[in-house]
Amino acid sequence: MKGFYVVLGAIAVIGGGAILWTTTGGGSGPQFIAQPVPLNTAAFPGYVVGSESAPVEIVEYADFQCPACGHFAVLTGPDVKQRLVQTGLVRWRFRDFPLDMHDKALVAHHAAACAAEQDRFWEMHDQLFFNQRNWSSSARPQRLFRDYAEAIGVNTDQYGECMEEQRYLARIQATRDEIAALGVASTPTFDIGQIRVSSSLAYDSIKALVDIAAEQAVP
């Protein structure tokens, strides 16, 4: 098991240089160009599901266009939700970490944020991961994102305004910079209590690490 995790605490400090992403909508919708923001910008803490009294919190740093993240969401995510989150053992926190190697990741994370504005983040999360192959290879992903938003009951007029205004773009970049400053360099990465894992995991591995984290949390 030691080969799969390191104890949280090793913090890597990156330079103050800002990171610039350019993600086009393939001719469908506005061009997404993240502007530089200071690293000390207060970043969004993420999207949370599960009981506040859960003994273990798992923080997932993920990229919607990352194949390993999609694999985890489709194959392992349902088991984690049913057997760990819904039973009160785990509180799950998703944090935006779109990598610049993925040309459509930034706009996908923004689409999820616009859906979250109408309390539909987790539904959009599932749409993006379960349909990842379709939109990641599409020349016009924003049209598909709008279809996904409509399918989950989002008001598409409000959603469209949010996307046009690029309302959450700076927030997503600030979150990405903050996470990078914590030493996270790949996706998916998980903080399971005090344990950090930079790898996709099967359910049994997550459960074993949750048990370790729960023991560490006992005073």
Q: What is the strand and helix layout of this fold?
A:
Layout lengths: L5 E2 L14 E2 L8 E2 L13 E3 L6 E7 L4 H19 L4 E7 L8 H12 L4 H10 L1 H5 L4 H11 L4 H10 L3 H13 L7 E4 L2 E3 L5 H15 L2
Parallel strand pairs: 5-6
Antiparallel strand pairs: 1-8, 2-3, 4-6, 5-7, 7-8
Helix pairs in contact: 1-3, 2-3, 2-5, 2-6
Order of helix and strand elements from N to C terminus: EEEEEHEHHHHHHEEH
Count of alpha and pi helical runs? 8
Order of the strands making up the biggest sheet = 1-8-7-5-6-4
The dominant shape is globular
Average pLDDT for all residues: 84
Radius of gyration: 17 Å
Uncertain stretches? 1-30, 32-41
Largest sheet: 6 strands, mixed
Structural class estimated from helices and strands: alpha+beta
What is the number of strand segments?
Answer: 8
First-last Cα distance: 24 Å
Strand content: 5-15%
The helix content, as a percent range, equals 40-55%
List key phrases describing it:
219 residues; alpha+beta; disordered N terminus; 6-stranded mixed β-sheet; two-stranded antiparallel sheet; 8 helices
Explain what you see:
The chain is α+β, with helices and mostly antiparallel strands. It has helices spanning 67-85, 105-116, 121-130, 132-136, 141-151, 156-165, 169-181, 203-217, and strands at residues 6-7, 22-23, 32-33, 47-49, 56-62, 90-96, 189-192, 195-197. Helix 2 runs parallel beside helix 5 (141-151). The longest helix has 19 residues, at 67-85.
Task: Give the structure's gist in a few sentences.
By secondary structure, the protein is α+β, with helices and mostly antiparallel strands. 43% of the residues lie in helices and 14% in strands.
